[in-house]
Prior knowledge:
Layout: H1 2-23, E1 26-27, H2 30-35, H3 37-40, E2 44-57, E3 60-66, E4 71-76, E5 86-95, H4 102-106, H5 110-114, E6 116-125
Amino acid sequence: MRKRLGDYWWALLVLGGMVLFLTGCEQKTINHILVDPHRYASQEVGVAGKVVRSYSVLGHGAYEVDDGTGTLWVISQTGVPREGAHVGVKGTIRDVFSLGELGPTLKLPDIVRSGVVMMESERKVKD
Length: 127
């Protein structure tokens, strides 16, 4: 009986380790990412929040996610979720160009002015 119980716990431990390995990304708050985007630039991270804005053209687009600590633009090659949807998204952080003071003057979208975006690799809609 003891051997079976030990085997059960060992199998559970291995299964738990596989789940952690397969998820392969660390969930962070948007504020953590925005404070130090270079720290996350070479690794895949996950965020979860509400879609506050989205734009799509021919199946590609961008959407802004708000997790309560900040907002982050996500670039998608597979369409975008609707505004108001709750999403979990995984991707790589990119530090894009910033136009500084010129951005608001030209009335460009925030995505061009912010300087930090996530390149989506996987998304789950929670609604």
